[in-house]
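ingest -> validate -> predict -> emit
validate: passed (alphabet ok, no gaps, 152 aa)
predict: started
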Amino acid sequence: MKILRRITAGTTAVVFAVLIAACASQPLGPHDPDAVVRPDLVQPETETVAAGDTLEVTFPEETGRGIAWSLEIREEGDWHLRYFMSANSDGIGGEPSWADAGDEDEHYWIDIGISGSGPDLVPIPETAEPGEYRLCTANSAPNICAEITVSA
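emit:
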């Protein structure tokens, strides 16, 4: 009987740890709750993009921004942060890259100020699930967004 209790307790602890890890890997809520969709300031080349593609984003008002972007999925009417991306604009920023928002060791970027109309080359993560997303600048004041659809 004692052996059965140890196995049950050990199994419960493992299942609980896996559930905590799964919840921690999917941050809830937006990166910046004050970010707003501004199609007059940030314009993706297309509203639908495939996971794994690079999206060109232009800025008709030559809005100042950094190279950091966030990608948030719409679920149950709310935005939820899924990825951080680092863009390239006219050779500034290096190779575009991305990281899962839950992987704190992987999402970082150089604080570079960019102005001009772009285009900024923003990578769409190949692991992004199909759905409605909000693509936002991640280190600007204020952060501005465009709504896009990610397809398989």
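The longest strand covers residues 78-86.
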